[in-house]
Amino acid sequence: MNAQLPDPFDPCRLGPVKLRNRVIKAATSEGRSPDGLVTDDLIAFHRTFAEGGVGMTTVAYCCVSPEAASAPGQIVMSQAALPGLRRLTDAVHTAGAAVSAQLGHAGVVAPKKLTGVTPLAPSRFINPASMAYCRAITRDEIARVIEQFAAAARLAVDAGFDAVELHFGHLYLPSSFLSPLLNRRKDEYGGHIDNRSRLVREIAQRVRDAIGEQIAVIAKLDMDDGLPGSIWLDEALRTAQLLDADQTLDAIELTEGSSVYKPMYLFRGDVPVKEFAKVMPRPMRLPLRVIGKSAMGSYPYEDLYMLPDARQFVGVLGNTKMILLGGITTRAHLEAGVREGFDFFAMGRALLREPDLVNRMTADPAVQSRCNHNNKCMVTVFERTHCVLDPEQRFGAAEPLDPAAARLPLQQIG
């Protein structure tokens, strides 16, 4: 690499936190907390990434309240969760990595069947993915949600986290306020993009006020949610500029897509229609098989596929670091991102496939990821998020093979 540019595997700082390198395990909702609490399974999941060499791993998805959940098996940030969260952060730190808690409120994506309450939106809305009615959030409820984010961040500090990631993407509640399609409010939270950016700015400010400089504060922000007439680059740049001017964030992770419309816009690659149909209620299975590819969207996978849009943010932010996401699988991709002006790099599916990929890339610059972007891992969010090509994660650890049996002809085994 050019000697004037930082090496992505050298130690660096993210706000008040020192990281051993610039690679972050991206948030991938894990489904390993059936009672809203940390499990040994979840601890082992994140310890694996820490042992595999990432600078920081992200615990996802941490609900700021019980009604904020987006899927089963998610952590609820509560005092009851604190002892388990401390065990988790201790385990990650012992393995040499930092750890972040992704804090979110699912809003229009929160299923009533799971939370027991009608989903919240900036304005009345019908979620096209679930056909669920979402009611308009009141001003008192907005204030309550802001305080819930602050309380969750304070809990993260108490639990020993090194950072919090505020989920401002994918048309979850904060993100839906940024969308002119979902946000038709007539008060100070609606209308011009400066008004629609008010909620994310207030959340970030309240979180910073609540925790000071004790840990890093990151926001995950949509550049383009893939929904016509919704969030796109022009206004996303303005939101990022406003957040940057507030100086409440240490970094922004740039993302795309939504959980409301054509979710493959975020993931790119194969569309796992058959796998999704299997986990849907029976009446939805046949329609999904018929129109699933159209409903989910079909977008070819490309390396660094978010870079063309993320590049627009370079030079716009003066106070806030930038985290590049999307199609990062090799050391060459990291080095290309550094040359483009990005500070950190978030990896998801490639690390699900190979948790030790960072260690291997550090040792050998020519290492290639084995992730083939089949996207069947998307469906595992409804159970335990994992790569379906990882036998230990999918089936459990195998019994040791009897060496004598291993030498038998195949037709004599089992």
Automatic annotation (TrEMBL):
Pfam families: Oxidored_FMN. One of its GO terms (molecular function) is FMN binding. The keyword NADP does not apply. InterPro entries: Aldolase_TIM (IPR013785), NADH_flavin_oxidoreductase (IPR051799), OxRdtase_FMN_N (IPR001155). Keywords: Flavoprotein, Oxidoreductase. The keyword Oxidoreductase applies. Residues 9-230 form the NADH:flavin oxidoreductase/NADH oxidase N-terminal domain. PANTHER family: BINDING OXIDOREDUCTASE, PUTATIVE (AFU_ORTHOLOGUE AFUA_2G08260)-RELATED (PTHR43656:SF2). This is NADH:flavin oxidoreductase. It comes from Mycobacterium paragordonae.
